[in-house]
Protein: DNA internalization-related competence protein ComEC/Rec2
Organism: Actinomadura decatromicini
Amino acid sequence: MTHDLRLLAPALATWITAATTIGLPPAITCGLASLAALYLLAPRRPSITGRSSGPGTTALASTTGALAGPSSAAPAAAAGQSGGGVGRAAGGSAGRRRLVGVVLVCAAASAAVVALRTAAVDTGPVRDLARHGRFAVAEAVVTADPQSRPGNGRPMIIVRARMETVTRAKVRVPVLLIAVDPGWLRLLPSQRVRLRGRFTTPRGADLLAAVVIVRGPPAVLGPPSLMQRGAERVRARLRAAVARLPPDQRGVLPGMIVGDTSGLDPTLAEDFQTAGLTHLLVVSGANLAIVTGAVLGLCRLAGLGRRRAPPVAVLAVVVFVVIVRPEPSVLRAAVMGLIGLLAMFTGRSRQGLPALAAAILLLVLADPELARSYGFALSVLATAGLLVLGPPWRESLARHLPGPVADALAVAVAAEVAVAPVLVMLSGEVGVVSVFANLLAAPAVAPATLLGALAAVTASVCLPLARVIAWPAGLAAGWIIWVARTAAALPYATIPWTNGGLGALTLLMAAGAAVLVLRSRRLRLVVAAALTGVLVAVVAMRVTARGWPPPGWQMVTCDVGQGDAIVLATAPGQAVVVDTGPEPAPVDRCLRRLHIRDVPLLVLTHPHADHINGTSGVMHGRTVHGVLTTPRTSGREARLTRGVSARPAQAGQQWRIGDLTLSVLAPVAAGPALTSNDDGTTINNASLVLVARKPGFSALLAGDVEIEAQRALENTVPQVQVLKVPHHGSPSQDLGFLAAAHASISLISVGEDNDYGHPSPVTVSLLRRLNTQVHRTDQEGDIAIARTATGLTTIPHR
């Protein structure tokens, strides 16, 4: 199939120009736009060689032929015979010049839009306040749903807004609000609020006037717009319709229908990502195509003709976007759908790539920030893959496979191949099982989407009937959930790869090499032989290698990134867990690998996010009997433990579970309760410090205590075999405290390439001078301490 590529270059010029000029000073961006305009307006000198376009060349040729006379008949005839070639050359040259002109026009327009937006956010009272880091009272309108993100001790709430008034001046510029009060999560787009906060300059190249660190709850000045109230009612009624479904289904189904993932378990979200099914939780072109197709089908059943059905579908698209919220992928899908419906309405044949290019042009000019959005890039690339790669691959597969299987496989592979470079840039992983997971999930996507959408519409009128409709939709979502969990649990579901631009480049090079191999029979044989040898070696290593968890394991430091999560074995399938890391999914996976289903005691050493935010991951599918917290608790731990009784531990207390004894060393004094105003050091020094003992095993678990608390404990630290180094190996360490433990093994739980510089080289050097083995989770993954006939040994599991 031949693709119409005429709009592709202007679209890419618009996209690239916006992406590269965002963040530049407005004067430079305006200068670039002016240069493009001057080039377009510069006069062109006509050429006598016939390569210039326009009537001058034709007139010159005619005049020359007339003046030649009879004696020039043969040359004239020859000229006539070659005239077609000259004309085609002239036409091609003119076409190229027109294309260059259109590209420059689009680039100039893109640069001009970015310059105007940059000038708007770079000047005025909001940016002046940000430059000086001042506090001010302001009024703003919320423009997107508030998002909760992990923070230092308490979750941060990120709110995109449009500043309307500041220091009594009227403004209209985009800002980013960062708050901690949970009242901000209850806001809806279009609500006007009053706030007080500190204005700071944005660090990145976003088109923002300021980032505002907000103090306290929002002062709501008015209700959301009628449209947003209606949209929220639909979303709320859908949540009510699915409320009686199993927890996973009622978390996934609203995400598939309207992009509402507020009830989605973070561990399940991680499984969807590993399985390559995240796109099902983000409303995009597939959802819009299903809904639009259903609306058009109903229009045909109702007797609406070809001319009257598209306007109804357009209305459905607009309503759908309002309910879902105008996220980048939704906007792209909506514009694509509207262009296609316009083509249907005017009777012209729809062409995929021109529609995609038009969508890029319109969206980037309307919102230049999309040019730097990974979500937008993934959406565009997936669509391009379906349009360009899908049809020929479908034809090739159809020669060997049944039609429906060929269609599904071509669609899944084309989309995965197209987005793979960007996914590698983001995650540093290559999905192996994603194609097969998408094939297995595909049959359930349309039923779940259509029935879920019908339930959402019905819920506004009759909730009991909506609950009945939601039940089969939940079954379809349940199949997708099973596929996601099963695929994510497979070994080597993802393969580590270099991230960033280098990762994308190497992946493209690998893809090019794969194409060359597939085209050569000899290379195919060589590569097949090599892969067979590698497969045999891997299988042999798996058969001969020790399993996980290793026999006789006493303790495992889980690799949860920049945070702590420690597991102490008490019985088969049972363990004490100390801290839970920053996210639920990593600690849940660690416990699954250890086959832990029962947690008699969960210890949360102090209320920092990197130690407690993964609590739901520990509780996912497991029984937690009790929770211990620092006596200087902030109370947030109790909110994370879903009703399991949490009580503060006191210095000197002991717990005995099986043959494991836990003793509390610190904090010695209870002190006042922690608040959000306490600095990080105060909260760290309130950490529980524990000593764990079993026959042939002892460990000091020091939480995040810093140098002040360590010095207070110097004389009470017992000798142990294993030391969990405080605060991820930060430089705030007391030599006397570390030396008093006399540990032969030191474990540092730390995230790879973290922003804090942990572990400090000074701390690592200090530990090595104390003749202790230093092991790090960022380099070794999960680290098990196992008891052998000769003592303790460390066994990494990456």
About this structure: The radius of gyration is 32 Å.
